[in-house]
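quick one before i forget lol
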Amino acid sequence: MNKKVLIISSSPRKGGNSETLADEFARGAVEAGNSVDKICLYDKKISFCIGCFACLNTHRCVIHDDADIITQKMMVSDVLVFATPVYYYSVSGQLKTMLDRANPLYNADYFFKEVYLLATAAEDESNTFEGTEKAVQGWIACFEKARLCETIFAGGVNVVGEIVGHKALLEAYEIGKRL
């Protein structure tokens, strides 16, 4: 079955390691016959949520910027993929802001059921990724039809391009191909 996959890459660096990981996931998903749309947050204008909750009635945000457009794409996607560098043991600020702005989805008739998390970090300690996964799980917990299907963590990569040759790239490709 052809799935509509939306990848949100939140690296602030164009061509960064988490974006490279996302590209491999996308390559596998496309080869499997899925439709893939990748959005990079580094070139988007996204304001902070103002907590007005008007979106719970309208399913649209009162702030008309790129987050409103991205949220509407999230709503009609079968699969969401979040790619993020790990900053201070959590998701990037760019991804956190986007997830906050996706509040119009909360009580909407969204399509997504599968969520994947791809993360990279300079550190490679066993606990480096725990807070990142917990942050995304906290968001997913608000969507009863959705579940975190798989995660990929590539530790020990810092400088752009350092992920080349990392085993996580093949893992991302294979998971994308299994969609």
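fyi The chain has a mean pLDDT of 96.
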